[in-house]
Structure formats: structure tokens, C-alpha cells
Amino acid sequence: KEAALGVLGLLSSNCCLLQILLNYFNVGCAGFSILDPYRPTFLSLTMTGLIIQFTQSWRNQKRLLTKRNMMTLIMVLGLTFLPEILRYRNTISPLQSSHLEDDQLKPFLLDIPGLSCEGCVDNVRKTLLKLDGVREVTVSLKDKNAIVYPKRLSSLTPQDLEKTTASIGFESKSRE
User: Residue 43: enclosing H or E segment and its boundaries?
Assistant: First the structure.
């Protein structure tokens, strides 16, 4: 039962965890976003499965919060809502605490049409942050772009950014 719920949780996340693992090995987007139209169905099946497991636990042991139920619940909900967790992490920015003079630097805007899931967004963000001269990066799945904030006195160019995204399988074009 727990394995089936785990698979449903993974499918509910559009296989986000698998994409993150592929990103670790520098594989580009695997196209799991094709599961997007089915996500509500997978979410419903996952929640129904959890309700059935808790109901059976109550009938058999007169307890809902067994160790097994809690571990399954944490695993399944973690997998299911991984895209939302990544979306939140990818949208918060420490730039609010920056010095005013740094904010005067002009950010670079990159269009990245190949972005299709939060795992891809996370991969692009992490990769761009590793570049010398990059202070902060904001990547938007909805807008399919990245805003790259350079450090002061940085020699970063739009071509550096385009080359970097291409190295992980995402073609990009700088917009001025």
C-alpha cells in the first residue's frame, strides 16, 4: 500500500523528484510536464488512498496516528507538494537586504523557452548562481525567463549566461 501511495505521490508531483535527480547529473528537462493535465486526477487518487489507509488503520487498531501512517503521510505529501515547495524556494529573494548602490546595477533578462517544470527552474537557478559575478537569480516558470543580478564590478556578459544555460540543456536568449 505504501509503495502505491508513494508512486501516486510521485505522479502527483509530475515526477518532480525524478527531474531533480536528473538535474544532479546535468540532464536537461525530461519532459515530465506532460503529466500536468493529469495532476488533479493523481492528487485525488493520492488523497483517496491516504483516506483509505487511515480508515483501515482506524478499523483495525482504533488509532489514526500510527508510526506507519505518519511516515507514509510525510513521504506522500512531501512528494506530492514538491513542485510547490520548489516554487516557493525559487521565488524568495535575499535582494531585499541588499545595499542600495548594488540595486543600481542593471540586471540581465534571459528568455528560456524550454522551462517546463519547477525542477528545471531550480536547475537553471542553481547553475546560474554558480557563475562568478552573479549575485542573485530569479527564474520564472510562468514567464519562462530568468533575471540575473550581477555583483558590483562584475565582467559578466549575456553571452556567459546563454552559454551556461545551454551547457545544462536550456537554450536562452538575452533580452535588452
Answer: helix 39-61
